[in-house]
Amino acid sequence: MTLKNQAINQALEGNWESAITINKTLIKENSDDLDALNRLGLAYTITGKLKEAKSAYQKVLKIDPLNPIALRNLKKLKEKGFTVKANQASYTRLKNNFLEEPGKTKVVELVNTAPPKIVEAIRTGQSVNLLIKRLKIFVLEDKEYIGVLPDDIARRLIKFIKGGCIYDAYIKSATPHKVTIFIKEVKRTTRFKDQPSFVFTGDNIFALDKNGKIRAQVESQRLKDNAAIDEEEEEQDASYSEEE
User: Fold this and answer.
1) Shortest CA distance to 135 belongs to which of 152, 110, 115?
2) What average pLDDT is seen over the chain?
3) Residue 20 backbone phi and psi in degrees, to 5
4) What secondary structure does DSSP assign to 72-97, as a single string?
């Protein structure tokens, strides 16, 4: 896992002192790392080190005077009613939003993402909307286009959403050319009571193969899982047709 991913994960888990240490290491390696500076500003804010937080955001603005994250957070720090306690509570909720549950949650990298200027304005933990359109699922922040779910995931979720299931989605990470979201099932209808929203395909184990034999076994299981998904979707298509 890269240092950047470690920094993000430590923040999501609420390990703010560790997040500070990792982001400071990243900044030593590259003093112009705007993402690390913004994350450092957030970690300092949560831990009550407001002077250090302001300094981190000010360093961002020296490099990028129009950086939306630094501008927004620096403005918040200067507000008269700002309190560290309230800010901590908001990030406790953020942490809870990202709790993973097998079959009910999934981290997804979007495709065809919006221009960097739009992506740079979104933040981790921000709620986004899932909109079905032309057999695809578009991801929107308010009414602003952010990106699209990969076709295989969209195809499966469209079945569930049209069947009455409900999902929440949040920004997990965002860089100018890459956006990942966290999708969470919040309601599953009786129709799909025995069908998980997200099916494990073995991809994580696949990467651990060393001698070729395990790789073949995992790939075989992945193909079986995908075949099961396709068969399940065909059955659902037939049932929808009957209802119509």
Assistant:
1) 152
2) 77
3) -60, -45
4) HHHHHHHSTT--HHHHHHHHHHHHHH
Level-2 CATH architecture, domain 98-198: 2-Layer Sandwich (3.30)
- Contact (Cβ atoms closer than 8 angstroms) between residue 165 and residue 185: yes
- Residue length of the chain: 244
Q: What is the C-alpha separation between 13 and 100, in angstroms, rounded?
A: 12
Query: Would you report the helix, strand and coil content of the chain in percent, each value rounded to 5?
Result: 55, 20, 30
> Which tokens belong to 215?
């790789």
Each residue of 125-184: pLDDT tens digit?
Answer: 778 899 999 899 999 987 889 999 999 999 999 999 999 999 989 888 888 888 999 898
User: How far, in Å, CA of 182 to CA of 201, rounded?
Assistant: 18
Q: Strands 136-141 and 144-148, how do they pair? A: antiparallel
For residues 164-190, one letter each, b for 16 or more C-beta atoms within 10 angstroms of the residue's C-beta and e for the rest, the string is: ebebbbbbbbbeeeebbbbbbbeebee
The domain 3-96 is classified under which CATH number: 3.40.50.1950, 1.25.40.10, 2.60.120.200, 3.40.50.2300? 1.25.40.10
Question: Quick one: average pLDDT of 211-233?
Answer: 43
CB count within 10 Å of CB 19 equals 25
